[in-house]
Every structure is written in C-alpha cells, then in structure tokens.
Specification:
- The protein is an alpha/beta fold and 673 residues long.
- Among the domains are: 14-96, Immunoglobulin-like (Sandwich); 131-171 and 180-380, Glycosidases (TIM Barrel), CATH 3.20.20.80; 558-670, Sandwich (Immunoglobulin-like).
- It is built from 14 helices and 33 strands.
- A hairpin with a 5-residue loop joins strand 27 (597-601) and strand 28.
- Helix 9 (382-394) runs antiparallel to helix 10 (398-405), helix 9 (382-394) runs antiparallel to helix 13 (472-490) and helix 13 (472-490) packs parallel to helix 14.
C-alpha cells in the first residue's frame, strides 16, 4: 500500500488485498446528506465488525484495514435520509454489496449476496488471446451451465461449471466443429426475481446483474472466491484450444429492479448517480429495458463503473470481447443531451477495450439502432435472421435476401465499417432453436407460468405435424430446412453466429423464451442419435467451407467491380443464368464471388488467387440446372449441397452447368484462373 495513502487509496475502488493490508474504497453520496459509510466484515461465527470510512470531496469513502484474509464476507452500510422525492434511499440497516466486488457468495437473503475478499493470484503461464480476425470468426453462443449439464464424458461434479466447459472433450468438440469463439450468456453474478422464485423457477439466462466484476458462483465449485480462478482457468484452456471468449454483458439495468424493490448496492449508495428517472415522476425510474430500471451512462459514476468493469475482464480475466445486451440503451442520454453517446465514444478511444471484439444488440424497448454504432463495433443483425427465415419458410423476395447476403450495406455502409460489422444469425438464445423453427408452428412457453403469453412472435412452420414426428417425410423436410437456414447464414458476408446446439438439432420443446428454465428444456441433450451426428457433420462441413474460401469472408462491401481474377467481385443471376427479377422472380438466387488474393505466391512469384465461389439457392418446387455466368470456360465443382445429410455432393464430373435440387443450396467452385 503506498505510504501516501495511510487511510487507503481512494483511486482504487473495491476491497482489494495487498499482502497483510486491504484497501477499501467505495463511491457514495451519503456525505452530501450528512451521512456516513462503514465497511462491514462478517466472520463465520456471525459476528459483524464495522470499520468507519473516511471520505474525499469526490464522494469516495476509503480505508486501509489490516488483518483480513481471502474468503471473508463483507459489505457496506450507508447512513443518511430516505427521501424518495429527492431520489435518496440510505438505510444503515441494509448491508449493501460492493459494486466492485470480485466475488459474491451464493448465500444470503433471496435478493441479496455477500461480497467476498479474493486472492487474485493465478498462473496464466504463456496464455495468449487468439485474436482471430473478426471477418474470420465463427461465434458459438452458449450457456456455461446448460452446455455440459448432461454430457456423459464430462466429470459429473464438473457438469454445468466453468471447469466443465474447459473439459478436454468439450474443447475437442468445439475445435472439430470449427467455431472460433464461444459467446457466453451472462456470467456476471446475478439474482432471480421474486416472481420466479414464487413459481419455483430461476433466472437461468442471468440477465439480472448484481456484480459487474464477479463471475457467477453458480458455475463454480465454491462461492468464497473459487469462481474467480476457475473462470480464469476456463479462459486459459479455451485460449490454448484456439478459442476466444466473448461475454454477454448487461450494463443497461441491474438486479435492483423497480424503485419499490430492496436496495442491494447502487441504490443504497448513490441512487441518483446511477439510475435514470421518469422525467414526470422523480420517485420512479425510467424503464426502457422492461426490467424496472435503467442505468444512466450519462453520469460519470456509471460510466466509470462500466468501463472499469470492461477493463477488468480484459486485463485480469483475459476475455476477448463483449456482446452488449440492449445496447440501444447505452445510446440514450435523456437527462444530459450534451453527453450523448459518451459511452460509445469512450470505448472507441480506450486503449484496452478497443482492442477486443465489441458487439451490440442494437435496440431496446424504445429504440431500434441497427447501423448507428461507431467504428470498431459489430451489431447483431436481426434483418439477416428475419430475411433468411422468411425466404425459406414464407418466400421473401430475393432482392431482400441478396442485400443480406452482400453484407447489409444498407445498414453499415457509410459508417466506416465493412460487412464484418454484421453479426449474422438465424437463431439466438432469445427465441426458438433452429430445430424448433421447423417443428413447432406456435410457441409453447406454458412452463414459464405466464399462460404462454410471453416470448416473441416468430415465423415458424411444422410441416404438417406439431412437435416431434416419426413420419420420415416430415423429418426429411425439417432436416433439409435446417440445413438451408444455417447454410444461408454461413454464406452471407459478415460474421456468422451459431446458437449452441443447433448443430445437433437441439430442442427447447417449442419454448421460445426459456430464460427461466434451468432444466432439460434448456440443457443440451448429448444423447448420440443419427440425426444429431448427421447435422453436426453437415455444419462442420459448412463452417470448413467458409474457412477455406476467403471470398466468403470479405472485409469490404461488394461493389460489382472487377476483382483479382478480372471478373466482377459479385455476379448475381436467376435460374436462367441472367440478371434476376429482384421483386417478382421465382425464389431462386445465384451468385458468384470472385476469388480473393490469398497473400501467397506461386513458384514464379505471382500472386495466388482463391477460387471463385458460386452459391445457388433454390427454394422452388423443382430442380434447376443453370449455366453459371461469367466463367463459361471454367467448369464448376460442387463443394457442398444441403440436399444430402452430410453436405457431400453426389459423385459427378465437373461441368459448366450446376444442378440444384428443389428446396436446396449448392455451393460450387471454379478452377483457379
């Protein structure tokens, strides 16, 4: 501890062990109202020791305390008035969580947790982030617990944990599948809302944060700090396997909920410094998240908390990126328009955060902001999701599909970003799995306890039979539809994201809002079946196809000008080989991507060019044979077809024409120019 801070370092928020001393610092406005703040340690025998804190003019309460050890539970008590009209809720009877706690216990009151002192010593060895280029990434969205809860080859005591996700069998599975990053549903410590507890349910997804620096103790073998090193060990193992770790983070609201709910941390320390308020009623929060409160990144204290948290997860926990839940909320600055988008600006210039992957969910309840984020940001592109689903399930015009395939320039061009700003997906945690899109025509959320009124309305079909079917013809239609949906996302310019388990035909039994289902509805079923094995083999082949052909992974928008081979960088055509009828043509779309420069040279030093790639998408009821335009001298060889279980094309000699079965996709390549 620096000698210049005999009462503790007020610049280091949180409670941090430094040898025999602990530095304690917390922000609170209690002093503005004649109050005070105490640091409280809870011994295992139930004894509470209180240490009064000194304050600075900036509202930082701090102390240096000797003799504390890792694993001790602690919290803060802030005294002062409670006055809703002035937006203040101090109450010394409430033990508050440290907003900067590195770990929280899994015990305490149903809506509370205790902060824990943590020994942060960890041997990272030669850990290095993979730093996969964004355009080369394939993201796998998954849940730490659900992924391994039933896996027979994961040690039983490790199932559903960080260590389970780091098991060799899981690392091997992900590596063979070909994905480059796992995007984890929230791993910050979270709480379950009382209404769910009353129904014997849990907030399984975890979008109810109580600790922005704390790994969730539910996924660890203990809750007295073990979760910190176990999370680090998971990241280290994933990195060693070449996989990046992206965290789904919730900086738009907290677990404290509406104003009439108990204070847990921020509300009891500095309510008006962290939250947004209804401009017509200062006793109520603004709520553009649907959760009862909204954090206010227009206030310096909130901005500091968010950016400090992000830097911590990058520097101390070695994560490789973030996906911001309801990121549209972070653009809102209702009460301070001069600070508009301050959060986005800060991340753009921050030398630590701007080195990792930054992904927005570009909307909230009151705004839709696709394309509005700054350079360096990527965005979930729901237009890709909606267009692909509509094309295959209800026949959207091919013009809209072409726009999505080409990288959604209508959303991102002119923002100093390329097609890799678009995160392309057909399914995510928020909705049906791909299997359920073609198995259940209506949602089945009865288990959530809201009379099936919750969850989004989605385009879905069941091919004549609601739910699982033993009809071979129905199953064949569903299987091909899944292959078509996933393949279309993988041939779009941008960054594909796969909902974990879709490669195995994972089902949630028709539930499209499984946020509260910590049970087999959400857990992956690892039972070996021919259907699961075949779909996994197909998705593996489709991902490999994308990896092996740079033309599918451009970083600039397609312009229709000659590429390295001398041909147009993209050529569109219909079933007759001519320019498509974009608005009223049949549901068939073909395109050729000119091969990219590979960066390699031949024996004579000439630059090598990747093969041209032709993609033919046929949603008509009949087979189509078409002559691919632009390269009549170059026969095409089929690489992948959705007409077969594994994607392998039937044996056939290369030819200048390509035959595409009904309701299928064929991807072919031309000989090198």
């Amino acid at each position: 501890m620096p000698s210049s801070y005999p009462l503790g370092d007020p610049t280091r928020l949180g409670a941090r062990l430094h040898g025999a001393a602990t530095n304690v610092a917390v922000y609170s406005t209690a002093g503005d109202y004649g109050g005070s703040v105490s640091f409280c340690v809870l011994d295992d025998d139930g004894t509470e020791r209180r240490f009064p804190l000194s304050t600075t003019p900036a509202g930082i309460w701090h102390a240096r305390i000797d003799g504390l050890s890792p694993g001790l539970r602690y919290g803060f008590r802030a005294s002062g008035p409670t006055d809703p009209a002035r937006r203040i809720y101090f109450n010394p009877a409430t033990l508050l969580v440290d907003p900067y706690a590195l770990a929280l216990t899994g015990t305490g009151t149903p809506r509370g947790r205790y902060s824990v002192l943590v020994d942060t010593t960890f041997d990272w060895g030669n850990d290095h982030p993979p730093r996969t280029r964004l355009a080369d990434s394939v993201i796998y969205e998954t849940h730490v617990r659900g992924f391994t809860m039933t896996h027979p080859d994961v040690e039983p005591k490790l199932r559903g944990t960080y260590a389970g996700l780091a098991s060799p069998v899981i690392l091997d599975y992900l590596s063979r599948l070909g994905v480059t990053a796992v995007q984890l549903l929230p791993v910050h410590e979270s709480l379950t809302e009382q209404r769910l507890l009353d129904r014997n349910l849990t907030n399984y997804w975890g979008y109810s944060t109580i600790g922005y620096f704390s790994p969730n103790s539910r996924y660890a073998t203990g809750s007295r700090g073990q979760q910190v090193n176990e999370f680090k060990a998971m990241v280290k193992a994933l990195h060693a396997a070449g996989l990046e770790v992206i965290l789904d983070v919730v900086y738009n609201h907290t677990a404290e909920g509406p104003i009439d709910q108990p204070a847990l941390a921020w509300r009891g320390l500095a309510n008006d410094a962290y939250y947004r308020f209804d401009p017509n009623n200062p006793t109520r929060y603004a709520d553009t998240t649907g959760t009862g409160n909204s954090l206010n990144p227009g206030r310096l204290q909130t901005l500091q908390t968010i950016t400090d948290s992000l830097r911590y997860w990058v520097t101390e926990m070695h994560v490789d990126g973030f996906r911001f839940d309801l990121a549209g909320e972070l653009l809102r600055q209702h009460d301070n328009p001069d600070r508009a988008a301050a959060f986005v600006d800060l991340l753009y210039q921050d030398p630590i955060i701007n080195k990792v992957k930054i992904i927005a969910e570009p909307w909230d309840i009151g705004s839709y902001d696709l394309g509005y984020f700054a350079p360096g940001w990527s965005e979930w592109n729901d237009r890709v999701r909606n267009t692909i689903r509509s094309f295959w399930l209800t026949n959207t015009p091919i013009g809209e599909l072409a726009t999505r395939i080409a990288g959604s320039s209508d959303a991102f061009q002119g923002t100093h970003r390329g097609p890799d700003a678009s995160i392309n997906y057909v399914a995510s945690h928020d909705g049906r799995t791909v299997n359920d899109l073609v198995t259940f025509a209506v949602k089945h959320n009865e288990a959530n306890g809201d009379h099936n009124t919750d969850g989004p309305d989605e385009t879905a079909v069941n091919y004549g039979s609601e739910g699982p079917s033993v009809d071979a013809a129905v199953e064949a239609l569903r299987t091909r539809a899944i292959r078509n949906l996933l393949t279309t996302a993988l041939v779009c310019q941008g960054v594909p994201m796969l909902l974990g388990g879709d490669e195995r035909r994972r089902t949630q039994q028709g539930n499209n809002n499984a946020y509260c289902q910590d049970n087999p509805i959400s857990w992956y079923d690892w039972t070996p079946t021919p259907a699961a094995s075949a779909m996994t083999a197909f998705v593996t082949a489709a991902i490999a196809l994308r990896r092996n052909h740079p033309a599918l992974r451009r970083i600039t928008f397609l312009t229709g000008v000659p590429g390295p081979t001398g041909h147009l960088d993209i050529t569109w055509f219909g079933p007759d080989g001519q320019t498509p009828n974009w608005d009223n043509g049949p549901p068939f779309l073909g395109f050729v991507l000119a091969g990219d420069l590979t960066g390699r040279v031949d024996a004579d030093g000439a630059a090598l060019v990747d093969r041209d790639v032709a993609v033919l998408i046929n949603n008509t009821p009949g087979d189509v044979t078409v002559t691919v335009p632009g390269r009549p001298d170059a026969p095409y060889t089929t690489l992948l077809t959705t007409a077969t279980d594994t994607g392998s094309p039937p044996a056939a000699a290369p030819s200048g024409t390509v035959s595409v079965p009904a309701q299928a996709i064929v991807v072919a390549t031309a000989a090198r120019a």
